[in-house]
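Page 42, continued from yesterday. The earlier attempt failed because a stray header line got pasted into the input along with the sequence. Redoing it now with the clean sequence only.
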Amino acid sequence: MTVGEKHFNTYKEGLDLQFLYDYCMEHGERRTMERGETLEEAGEPSRWIGYVERGCFKYMVHNDEEGKDYCTGFVFEGEFVADYPYCLDGDKAEITIEADMLCVVRVIEGAELQRMFDEDMERMRIGMQLMQNLFKMVYARDLDYYRYSARGRYRQLLERCPQVVQMLSLKDIASFLNITPTYLSKLRKEITFERKED
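This time it went through. Structure tokens are written below.
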């Protein structure tokens, strides 16, 4: 999902991933997935990387102590979905990737992408840059929990990707922001009221 030049997921900014898009479209298995279907399961070998043609996936992690799932991210149309880099070698998936609505995705095995990296130095360089970009994105999100209040994080989300609040459930947005749905509902009302006053 993009807003002007802003992306919800910033990992692909400055990268030319056309080769991966082309490969997924030409060789990928086209899957239609219903809401709640999983592409990857935490704890199982991670296998897939795909290009999302339609829909939205969410990344989920389970907290055993609380017996609760948390949403750690989303992937929208026009983006790649994977538990990267674990999918490259079939390592154990750290997250569950779940369709948040009816989705159409073109998937290839992560091992195919690893082979493409191994066979071409320029693609290998792109793969390394992709890792750096993913790290920066996740690191910035982690730091934002310390730099900003819940209100600040929600405002940032609204400014960067206002469509997100129409697409996703209150529960998932709250989980992503690491707050309760009740508190998010309160923030929404307050921010809406503030905007009406301006």
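Notes: The longest strand covers residues 68-76.
Reminder to self: strip header lines before submitting.
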